[in-house]
């Protein structure tokens, strides 16, 4: 049985796409060949007046091209041939000679949206699972089956670039407002409305379009206006990417070239750029990240046969501060659970609830939720100073400040209030979970759930398990983390866990460099040039210098002189400098915004900004401290795989995605070259750079962390 079936209803052909044996519809080589044949038959059949293209999948229209075929490409010539086939197929839809109506329900992405754009008319359901987008740049390539040509012509250059350059997916309602979709309907009416539109189009009816605003129309029609749009887009793009990601720049050029020289010239440029990008190292790394995150969505978090996760319908949170309110708001919005906040002071409870509502209101303001949804979600939030509601909790997350005694007191109190099958988690960034669980009678139901700040924006969750954590507890926490929209990695209960473990030496090296005279600006610029979203000194201020100080003490206690705590950070905190949160750190802050470097910070940490450290050594010292620690921590089993380690570093601390993560980057560099670099740095700057045993062994045996692809 093929992927396509045709059913006649009067003069209208119902063309259903249902790829057998797959949960989603995707465009494979066989699908392209079959659709080409079907379109040929539809074009020549004189009894057919119009075609309705619809999906047979419950939640997917067309999810895009088959990524496995894309990964198999080895040469530019192969990539060029592949994209030309895709362009020819989409062109065939557009030039069928009969109206084609796209009836869209579920994901309509990449090549799926490009096919829909070639249709005469587009109808989408208003269901939350219906989204449209061109996410190709997130894989290091560009929309190359006409997406860079047809979308700007349909909705305007500025709106199209906003989607294409960021790889954005938009919900159906927004797609309707922008003009991508012609009609928006309830899922139950999709097919009926599609056939009615087909009948109108078959009799010569022309749809009215042009929902774009007057400003966009004026800019598109004016050559000077278009130049301003493209110049602004390029400047914003380079500021965001630092020039590390070639795909968005290529997409921008393809859009501009096509509008200037015509559709076919634009398609030619799309194909040329795709052929170059498809075999580029950046694309290969981004695709591996995609595969890794996809695999993590299916990973239960334990080895072997996994028990069924326990559903979470009621969540208790102890601690109504910044983290507690962020966890609560995210749990309500993403997982739809009842959330009960508890704190010892009623004023703090009120502040926590207001903080959670502010997050929901921000989503309302950005049109990510409706007013009705906001009111419904708001009612799921409650709080108090007593333990009311905790007896119903399926999961309780402790989110009080980083103090072992306080956390143990909370754990003991929680255990007395909850059911025997309630999971108890600690949102700690540094304190060992086993120590926190020493005071409870059933430590097998205790684990760590380390969220990153701000919770509503940061994508990573570390689920931290002890030697006594029960498998059902682990899989339940992992499943709930995913319901909250997080990418989840399971981490062993070791000091610093994974993210802070590899971040610690990196940030500790910052003080060494500062004390050697390297300026704050030089440090931040060096690491942003490497590809981090912010520099290490900015990161210190963002995390909070008091938090960094506590974390460094934990790491020093565990690892000794190799992780000597920062004396400079201690002096900064003694001076009342906590970073952005109180407006005083290495930088000055006004109105919550970072301003210039605070020059008095050098005096406090006893540094003289007059460096003789070679510029290349600045970035090498910082990067290789992290790389070496990542290899060491993996060897100790802190994470279950190199895959998890790379994803944790990318989503947790912003390690440059285009480099694939610290362990994949080491693979690209080569263990033997990494060891040579560390030996050189150790000779110049001290034994803290000595390569760890795992790296030395890998260098000798020419091993890799990841299998070759």
Descriptive keywords:
Rossmann fold; 30 helices; 3 domains; alpha/beta; 2-enoyl-CoA Hydratase, Chain A, domain 1; single chain; N-(1-d-carboxylethyl)-l-norvaline Dehydrogenase, domain 2; eight-stranded mixed beta sheet; six-stranded mixed beta sheet; 709 residues
Write the layout of secondary structure elements.
Blueprint: E1 4-9, E2 12-17, H1 29-44, E3 50-55, E4 60-62, H2 67-71, H3 76-94, E5 100-104, E6 107-109, H4 111-117, E7 121-125, E8 131-133, H5 147-155, H6 157-164, E9 169-171, H7 172-178, E10 183-185, H8 190-202, H9 214-221, H10 223-241, H11 246-261, H12 263-278, H13 281-298, E11 314-318, H14 322-335, E12 338-342, H15 346-365, H16 371-378, E13 381-384, E14 395-398, H17 404-417, E15 423-426, H18 433-436, E16 446-451, E17 460-465, H19 471-483, E18 487-492, H20 499-515, H21 520-530, H22 536-543, H23 545-559, H24 567-574, E19 587-590, E20 593-597, H25 600-604, H26 615-635, H27 642-653, H28 662-669, H29 671-685, H30 693-701
Parallel strand pairs: 2-3, 3-5, 4-6, 5-7, 6-8, 7-10, 11-12, 11-14, 12-13, 14-15, 15-16, 17-18
Antiparallel strand pairs: 1-2, 8-9, 16-17, 19-20
